Amino acid sequence: MSIKYLESELVRKEELIKEMDVIFNSVTDGLYITDGEGITLRTNSAFEKITGIKPSSIIGKNVRKLVETGVFNKSVSLLVLESNRTASLIESLPNGKTALLTGTPVFDSSGKIFRIVTTLRDMADLNMLESKLAGAEKKSEQYRMEVLNLRLQQLDMEDTIVHSQIMRNVMRLAFRLGKVDSTVLITGESGVGKEIVTRAIHKAGKDENRPLITAVCSAIPENLLESELFGYEKGSFTGADRSGKPGLFEIAEGGTLFLDEIGDISLNIQVKLLRAIQEKEITRVGGRKPLKVNVRIITATNKDLRELIKQGIFRQDLYYRLNVVPIHVPPLRERRDDILPLIRYFLDVFNRKFNRDTRFTSEALVLFEKYDWPGNVRELENAVERMVVIATGSLIRKQDIAEHIREETFILPEMALNSIPPLSKATNELEKQIILRACKKFRSTRKMARALEISQSTVVRKMDHYSIGKQPN
Question: From CA 160, how far away is CA 338, in angstroms rounded?
Fold first, then answer.
């Protein structure tokens, strides 16, 4: 082998080492490398920048010694040597910075560790990235909200107020269901907006000009419900139209039939409804010839249909036919983010309707926001209308709010809202309000104790302490 060749190889290897050094020091994360015994072999320039530790002070030294002498608080290299696998930890550095360390073992052909490569990343950089990501996610959510509201406007549903995340999810599902014809069961308390969800499903469909027919089952007498739904032939019963009459199934042909309060229909109607869904055909009252129907069924109820099945007053097979795609609309107390936007919307509607210019004080809004709204959106709408109508001036104050709302809303006194009172005083005041509310609601110390999940003797003692009038047991 010639000297010239050896010299050429030496030059090539030196150039390769220089190239690797450049790459090694161009990495923005700190790099710290030890051998299989924990002896420090080298670091890159980013390591010194992050830690403030000069390479000359640690090269050739064992990480155990560096920890003992306080150069390092902790060592991820030691964790790797102990566990024989990759490890991570967060370390507070002597220069006051905090770094995320990840140690990765490198094994030789016999499976023994011969190198440990540790990367360091300044947590300040990570926190900045996290903050930027959070900002981007917030902006993205704002964009999603704007898109959702635009879709509502395009569907001519400006009266639909969607602000809370849970209702956004409900409406997104409604939009998706508009593209298919699956049967939908909407559940939720009275007044939560089940009909609005139905309209969203229908309007998001392939042809919003198709009919949307609504029937509130509980509002139609049982002896008329069958003929209303399925129609009747002439002369089928006394008082019937001489030429007969088509039912809602026929009127909704090609469109959507929304049956609200479905839990109130009789077993007899349930049988016929099941057949209409399964066979896609109906038979008019007094008729013999079945009629084919092409109708999308959406039903809604504020009752627990599974409980009605247990009681034997709702058919299980019909339940499964109706519950193909369930949508639950949560009560207003579980989506309080919607309360203030709804108030603003209804306030604008009724100010225009009654030619008023009223607005709520912040204290009044707090009461409305904290109230549970058992009647949900319908109750809130009625309350806002009432306030606009009876307001004597332009401001609706806390004292103008209905008494039952003021009584059932936990609000600490003004001194607790506008100052920092002693914690014990504020706690006692809140406890007193809770006891008062329980006393007014249950009128029995035994029932109060059950609701408050304390003993009856404790209820009596606290009533005495707060000078609350005694109630019968």
Answer: 11
Residue 201, both tokens: 């499903």
Is 436 within 8 Å of 428 (Cβ atoms)? no
Label each residue of 360-390 as H, E or C: ECHHHHHHHHHCCCCCHHHHHHHHHHHHHHH
Rounded Cα distance between 21 and 433, Å, is: 71
At 292, which helix (H) or strand (E)? strand 291-292
Q: Give the β-pairing of 113-122 and 98-107.
A: antiparallel
As a whole number of angstroms, the distance between CA 46 and CA 103 comes to 16
Mean pLDDT in residue range 321-330: 95
pLDDT digits (tens, 9 = 90+) for 188-229: 999 998 999 998 898 887 666 789 999 999 999 888 899 899
CA distances from 82 to 105, 119, 164, 177, 324 (A): 11, 18, 49, 55, 55
State the Cα angle at 406 between 405 and 411, rounded to 5°: 120
Separation between Cα atoms, residue 277 and residue 281, nearest integer Å: 8
E-only strand ranges, 6-107: 30-35, 40-43, 87-92, 98-107
Contacts 24+ apart (CB under 8 A), 225-229: 225/265, 225/266, 225/269, 226/268, 226/269, 226/272, 226/285, 227/285, 229/269, 229/272, 229/273, 229/282
416 pLDDT above the threshold of 50: no
Question: What contacts 443, CB < 8 A, 6 or more positions away?
Answer: 471, 472
356, 347 Cβ separation under 8 angstroms: no
Q: How confident is the model at residue 13 (pLDDT cuts 50, 70, 90)?
A: low
Which tokens go with 278? 């399964």
Q: β-strand 184-187 against 325-328: which pairing, if any?
A: parallel
Task: Evaluate whether 99 touches 127 at the Cβ level (below 8 Å).
Answer: no
CA-to-CA dists, residue 16 to 11, 23, 33, 116, angstroms: 9, 11, 19, 22
Read off the tokens for 117.
């490569």
**Cα atoms found within 13 Å of the Cα of residue 166, Cβ hemisphere only:** 13
Residue 120 C-alpha from the chain's centroid: 37
